[in-house]
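Action item from last week, closing it out:
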Amino acid sequence: MENNDFAPSRNENESSGESSPTDRTQTWQLIFEKLAAAPNREIYRQQLQQAAETMNCSLRTVQRHLQRWKEENSTVSQVRQSRGQSQVSDEMKHHIIQLYLKGTSRGNKINPMQVFRRLKFELFTSETPFGQEECPSLSTVYRVLHPIIESQQTQRRLGEARHSQIVLPKSSNEVWWANLIRLPRQVRDCFGEPLAGHPILVTFHDARSENVMGIKLALLGSPKEVLMLALRQAILPKRFEEGHAPINAWTACGLPKQLVVDWAKSISELSGLCSTLGIECHWRRPFWAMSATVESFNRQMMHTLALLPECRDQQVPCLSLADLEQLIIHYIVDHYNQHNSPKDLQHTRTESWEAGLVKFPPNVPLERSLNICLPKTGNRVVQNSGCVQFEGWIYRDAGLSSHIGESVHLRYNPSNITTILVYQQQGSEENFLARACIQHFHEESLSLDDARAIRHRQRQKRNPN
């Protein structure tokens, strides 16, 4: 016969087949205490079913009486003294935090779920000195790491790109907007062969006058490098080779107070550069009030220069990267900047920019201070006779003779690598050593793309098969 834990003790009333009200109340009290002390859901369901059979009622009736008993009695359940306190030891908390900090060091990223899985694996393989301590739950790991994650998210370095509200510019060179697009056409090398890929175009627009401040067109390199080169060109006064200058003067120059970009992947290095130059860097996505202006410029420029795929019948022959950049500069200086913007129908964009300046011409930093915008190579050793190698070419300067055998790095302008800048790292600062010139090359300029095309052609001649 199955034992019933809720059966009342036998007394004289059983002989008559009747159950007294006192026995029934004691039975309910016993049922409530047993259900409240059930250690898990399985035992709770078994005891609930057994109570319903004993009291000859439904499961819902037992649950309703239990709920009423909990509300009316102060001795419903014993609250554990540690309620609201973490059940994880301090050593386990420290280990969880160390796993997270180790996973986020050196630019890596790790989330609490990955920390939980790693901790669970370590406890399973007994790689931790916690003995028989059980693995904390995922919610516990989140609770332990929450203060660390919050503190990391609220920290802000100087010059870091921000989502803050951009103040409406009241003068020129107060806010610049960066625009990056990939042109849908190919370019050729110095031998007339088409190059793989499509060039990247970066332009900077003054938010008040919509005047284009500077551009950079590049096929090689990351968007971050192209953006920094374009910023350098926009800040400095514009100089052109004889015979390549546009009809109108491109007077745009100066240092902006704020710089706005719309792609997050390109601001890790740009934020540090802006901090060095005293520029506030912001990230806005999508483009704020300048969205229509920038999109209109892109559309007009590519349609006028027949760069769109639907303009194939009007397209000019395949140009080199330098020729295409020169074509875009002429369009900007002689056409786009010479037309008025919807904001000011009485003046051209150039006139509006000049009128909005606090001081004309604006203050421009020294060109050497902007060399940090140039791409940087890895370390290399100064060879005999004070020369260094770059892209298969030899560069020499008399000032490097006293640094033979020392480690240096180079900075260069991809548009013309006939001259490179040699630096030596000293702590967190760069020490300028020399301006080395290319050897055995008699042309006035050589771009990085042409240099690589020449090397490729030479390899093909040496190894025709």
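Closing note: The CA atoms of residues 88 and 136 lie 7 Å apart.
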